[in-house]
Amino acid sequence: MKWLLFLTILVGFLLRARAIESAVDLLDQENARSLTPLDRENCFFDPDAEVLLFAGKDRLPGRAGIDDDFNGIVDDLSELGAIYGDDICLTPADANYKSIREGSLPWRVISVGAWVKS
Fold first, then answer.
1. pLDDT of residue 49
2. Cβ(101)–Cβ(94) under 8 Å?
3. What is the pTM assigned to this prediction?
4. Are 14 and 48 in contact (CB under 8 A)?
5. 3-state SS string over 18-74?
6. Tens digit of pLDDT for each residue in 15-52?
């Protein structure tokens, strides 16, 4: 019985490590979010600022070519944020926030309240 518990913990750890590695892979050099800290002295928290979720590197909601929500339509807007997808959250402090919001890529507001530049 102990071996089953050990195996379950091991599998969970390996899957978690894979998810963390995948999340790191989503950071591209153009965005460089992990390399450029937010200068909080020139920012303020806006409780009404909209946080966007948009189609990531593959430019398709969720996982490309897969019906993530099983509604019979592949890569529709309702699949944004699907698990194992490459979709990305953006706040007004992100450099490409405005271009994504005004562009043709699929996006939606998923939250409000974020740091914005003064």
1. 94
2. no
3. 0.57
4. no
5. HHHHHHHHCCCCCCCCCCCCCCHHHEEEEEEEEEEEECCCCCCCCCCCCCCCCCCCC
6. 554 444 444 454 555 554 544 455 666 788 899 999 99
Instruction: Grade residue 104 by pLDDT with cuts at 50, 70 and 90.
Output: confident
Cβ atoms of residues 53 and 88 within 8 Å: yes
CB count, 10 Å around CB of 52? 20
What is the residue type of 80? L
SS3 17: helix
Indicate left, alpha or beta for 24 from its phi (over 0: left) and psi (-120 to 50: alpha): alpha
b/e map 104-116, b = 16+ CB within 10 Å: eebbeeeeeebee
Q: Tell me how far apart the alpha carbons of residues 1 and 19 are, in angstroms, rounded to a whole number.
A: 28
